[in-house]
Amino acid sequence: MATNPHVRPTAFRRFIDSESSGGIVLMAAAALALIVANSPLAETYFGALKTYVGPLSVSHWINDALMAVFFLLVGLEIKREFVDGQLSTWPRRILPGICAAGGMAVPALIFASLNWSNGEVIRGWAIPTATDIAFALGVLSLFGNRVPASMKVFLTALAIIDDLGAVVIIAIFYTGDLQLWALGGAAVVLAGLFVLNRRGVKMLLPYLVLGAVLWLLVLLSGVHATVAGVALALTIPLVRPAGGDGERAVNSPLHRLEHALAKFVPFLIVPIFGFANAGVSLAGVNASALTDTLTLGVAGGLVVGKVVGVYGTAVATVKLGWADAPANAAPLHVLGVALLCGIGFTMSLFIGLLAFPDNPALRDSVKIGILLGSTIAAVLGSMVLMLGPRPGGAQARAF
Predict the structure, then answer these.
(1) If you ran DSSP here, which 8-state letter would residue 241 be given?
(2) Rounded to an integer, what distance in angstroms lies between the CA atom of residue 346 and that of residue 368?
(3) What is the pTM of this model?
(4) Residue 83's pLDDT band (boundaries 50, 70, 90)?
(5) What gap in Å lies between CA 109 and CA 115, rounded to an integer?
(6) What domains, with CATH codes, occur in the chain?
(7) CA gap 37, 267 in Å, rounded
(8) How far apart are CA 75 and CA 79, in angstroms?
(9) Which one-letter DSSP state was computed for residue 238?
């Protein structure tokens, strides 16, 4: 139903529509989890997560089922951007693509250099490679027109490619013992989804029903169930608008599903995930816990690795003439955004759960490292962006 343009939106509606609101809700959920985990309610909190509802515990329902919907939205965004968005041409992909690769490789190397000799801990090498797009864009949006619009485009494109890399890492490196019968069944269902796409089926219901079957088979196969969300997204039809036909774009099945999930995921699923997984007891945390190589590897990878990987490759790519610098962006803008890429909350927590599924002590160290590194990255990135010149003023030439 159309909104009356003369009716002033409520404060709640303005908050929901704000780019920073999803990140604010997630931060509030994470803070609440920390408070509850260190209060008299801690036993109830941890006990509730271990309670079984049907075949899975509450924690598994959140991490395997609800997060599959999160990954479905991620997959829809990736497909839209690559087919008909900011990443639809190679010139647009080069700079964010190379920076995303650098922003994943350097944090992984930093983590590995600190934990190479520990055969169990080294499994967490991918934890600091991820960027939380909701958090990072939320912080960036707080600066309004102090930061050029090109930097928002750059960060969005980089984070989407980063998410794609995280999905590939999860599928390849964090897969358990494979059950071939379930994997074969999943392949058959996925083929059926592609047939629906090729036949031009525009109704979403058949895709969602087969998607639920796909999720169950992937869950049983040994591949993490959230991969089913991305696989389903790739089969949802995207009708490209012809001649600027905006109505056709809105009615595209992919756009309809993405629009339906756009508020549901950031305001319900992601905060629930954050609340369920950010809770860590700080009772035994001391200086030695903060200097543990696992904690340092995660925090150092997010803060140092991301800024070196993203900013360093951005400078090198532009100087080599492989891509143009973001329009109207000064070096401090790019440096500030590179620091914001070190906010790795949601995806980093998720990879940490996959890396250490049966070791609560290591998962707690991971959580401390993520909270510490993401907070430092957000603060430093904000400080650098505050120092950057305003767009339209006297701009220093980027790089």
Answers:
(1) P
(2) 13
(3) 0.81
(4) confident
(5) 10
(6) 60-175+224-279+291-387 (1.20.1530.10)
(7) 22
(8) 6
(9) -
